[in-house]
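Postdoc handover notes: sequence design on the structure in folder B. Input tokens:
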């Protein structure tokens, strides 16, 4: 570096030289010897004047390469040494005059036009830095707040845990009793909603906290981009300096080994600093097809499972959404939807939105019949192709009775109740009519089936154990 000094137009030349040597030293550490030799060793400090550092490089190619890939890093490192440095001009060797002198905000730089050999590196204007941040963290959905999240038995643990993380993040010290929080459950059950809710909470109550929320897919994309542009240091720094990191749909990086590795190290760095992490996936950690150490890391904190919705939760969600939309719908209609659209909340919302749109269009309440028409495709999809035989078989197995009891005349509760559960599920999960169902149950009358269905509907409101049995069976039959 000694031969870097050609002339010394400013006073503390020696200071600048040692500053610059330290910048290069840090750069070397970051990029490794080989890359350093290829790209940076020939860089020479020409001078420092009024906050502008002029550095020369031997070739145009090198100059452009450094400017494209290392501009930000170079400036950041130098500014860490000397905050007065506001920009760097890269010039070609023996071109001691600054080629481009740009002022912030200059659209076109006349000097650069007449002398195209210099490249000026300046900090991004704040707007751009903001955009960069925005790129890392995915945009939040304004509807996905805790206030809008309806809590029921299937999601109460996940909700409580998410709230706990959100509150810990806005407190004076990050005090998370578990780390990471791992949320998992089938599609459309509220994982993304809860993560957004945490982010909104922190953004509202502690806006200075740095929160990154993004999908695992986007994490991978950012990581690959960093590799390609050799800015992995920035990437690591960015992710390891957050107050809260949330990665959605981590199942996406199954089989993506280097991304998993990077995420693993990021986790460790954050956990060491007691920074909360929230992860979501469609499966439990042990069922994810990830590296073993990753799986055990994920299961290290709290694992909260979002269960398939129950009828009560679906009804609650419909009521809440209708209220948010300032629409009053007949209770019967909401109950009908809660009964029929059992797959997930996203479809339930879709159904409700169609009904709302239709109601507004025709300007009066929708009847059950027309609702069925409007939603016929959704209803059909929710029926799946479960057969009555299958339902009977599963229910018999579950309650440990013989299949023959489904069609027998025995009325003992031990067999009558499971039979009613099977009828109820047939009504819910198939499009068979009541008489058709009756025939399959030993030629029973349609009123008997109706009675059975009603009985179960009534019972599951108060009988938790039965409700869970029914829910479990429904899930098994639909999977
Ligand atoms: P996931 O990420 O688990 O696939 P989302 O969080 O995207 O599911 O949820 C799908 C939709 O259902 C969203 O519009 C969300 O607001 C809604 N939703 C899910 N669960 C609830 C709930 N308990 N209360 C209110 N809305 C919910
Ligand atoms: Mg999601």
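Designed sequence:
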């Amino acid at each position: 570096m000694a031969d870097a000094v050609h002339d010394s137009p400013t006073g503390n030349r020696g200071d600048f030289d040692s500053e610059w040597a330290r910048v290069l030293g840090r750069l070397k550490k970051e990029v490794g010897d080989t890359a350093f030799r290829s790209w940076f060793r020939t860089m020479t400090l020409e001078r420092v004047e009024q906050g502008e550092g002029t550095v020369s490089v031997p070739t145009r190619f090198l100059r452009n390469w450094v400017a494209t890939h290392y501009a930000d890093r170079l400036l950041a490192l130098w500014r860490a040494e000397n905050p007065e440095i506001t920009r760097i001009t890269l010039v070609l060797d023996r071109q001691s005059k600054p080629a481009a002198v740009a002022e912030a905000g200059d659209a076109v730089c006349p000097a650069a036009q007449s002398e195209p050999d210099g490249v000026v590196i300046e900090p991004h204007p704040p707007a751009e830095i903001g955009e960069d941040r925005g790129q890392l963290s995915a945009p939040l959905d304004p509807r996905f707040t805790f206030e809008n999240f309806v809590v029921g038995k299937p999601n109460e643990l996940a909700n409580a845990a998410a709230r706990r993380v959100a509150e810990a993040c806005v407190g004076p010290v990050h005090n998370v009793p578990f780390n990471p929080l791992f949320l998992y459950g089938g599609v459309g059950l509220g994982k993304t909603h809860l993560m957004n809710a945490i982010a909104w909470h922190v953004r509202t109550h502690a806006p200075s906290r740095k929160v990154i929320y993004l999908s695992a897919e986007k994490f991978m994309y950012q990581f690959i981009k960093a590799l390609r542009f050799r800015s992995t240091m920035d990437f690591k720094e960015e992710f390891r300096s957050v107050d809260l990191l949330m990665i959605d749909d981590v199942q996406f990086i199954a089989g993506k080994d280097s991304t998993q590795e990077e995420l693993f190290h990021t986790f460790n760095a954050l956990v060491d600093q007691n920074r909360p992490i929230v992860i979501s996936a469609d499966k439990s950690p042990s069922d994810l097809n990830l590296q073993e150490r990753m799986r055990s890391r994920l299961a290290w904190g709290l694992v909260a499972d979002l269960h398939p919705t129950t009828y009560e939760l679906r009804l609650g969600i419909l009521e809440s959404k209708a209220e948010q939309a300032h629409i009053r719908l007949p209770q019967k209609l909401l109950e009908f939807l809660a009964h029929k659209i059992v797959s997930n909340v996203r479809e339930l919302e879709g159904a409700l939105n169609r009904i709302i749109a239709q109601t507004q269009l025709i300007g009066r309440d929708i009847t059950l019949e027309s609702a069925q028409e409007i939603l016929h495709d959704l209803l059909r999809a929710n029926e799946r192709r479960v057969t009555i035989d299958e339902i009977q078989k599963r229910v018999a197995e579950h309650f440990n009775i013989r299949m023959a009891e489904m069609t027998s005349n025995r009325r003992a509760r031990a067999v009558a109740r499971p039979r009613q559960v099977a009828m109820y599920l047939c009504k819910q999960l198939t499009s068979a009519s009541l008489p058709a169902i009756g025939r399959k149950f030993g030629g029973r009358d349609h009123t008997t089936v109706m009675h059975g269905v009603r009985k179960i509907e009534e019972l599951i409101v108060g009988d938790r154990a039965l409700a869970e049995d029914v829910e479990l069976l429904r899930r098994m039959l639909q999977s």
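Context for whoever picks this up: The chain has 21 helices and nine strands. Don't rerun without checking with the PI first.
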